[in-house]
Design a protein that fits this description.
The protein is an alpha/beta fold and 268 residues long. The protein is built from 11 helices and 9 strands. β2, α4 (73-86) and β3 form a beta-alpha-beta unit.
Length: 268
Amino acid sequence: MTDVKDIKFWDRISKKYAQDPIADIPAYEYTLERTIAHLNSTDKVLEIGCGTGTTALKLAPHVAHITGTDIAHGMISIAKERQSDQNIKNATFETKSATDIPKDNQFDAIVAMNMLHLVSDLPATLRAIHSALDHDGLFISKTVCYPQKKGRLSFKLLMKVVPLARLIGKAPFVKIPEIETLEKAITAQGFEIIECGNYPEHPPRRFIVALGNSLISKYSQGGAGDSMSPADYFGKTPNRTYRRICTTCSGVSTTAKAAASTSFNACW
């Protein structure tokens, strides 16, 4: 359940939030590019925690329809104004919590950028996301995580101040995860991570692309000796073009390349 204090906080800062520049433009543009690469023109997409709609409106031209939700009415009002100014017809913005998602497998992709560290019940949020995805849908997220080394101590000290600031309405709920903890939480709900990286690296904002209702898991666990190659996997999901990036060789794979490239398959 969303805390009223958090709704009031985000409502109060919505105008300032809309005016603040993006902190790391190269990292933002790269993860936006990677997100677009995973989407299709026929997709129905949901962005939870959409804020003032910046990312949702950038994704809109690449999909059939995108719905943006946020707990703060002030954020959604600005998103609607921006939508009108940009004359974007295939977007809808609604004031809803992260878990207030129709559970009827209606979305091809769900996006959550810089917001999973702001939810008080991460498992419940991930369950709601998983249940709302189509059978071969994608969950694409970017989350602030604890630094592994550089700046870790100062980051932890800063996080100790946040609860005090929240008591007087100067900060929202924040719970920064370790990268490993975040990824375990995602896979625990039935997702299969197919792409990840830190953009920027310090402090890390973990970009994760995960497959819901994973056919990879289904077939790899099907029985003794029953494993699934990339070619087999892509053959069983003909309606979607998946693109993967290999963290070992940095090679980018599309459906066709995954089925044909032994070098990429080896890295996978």
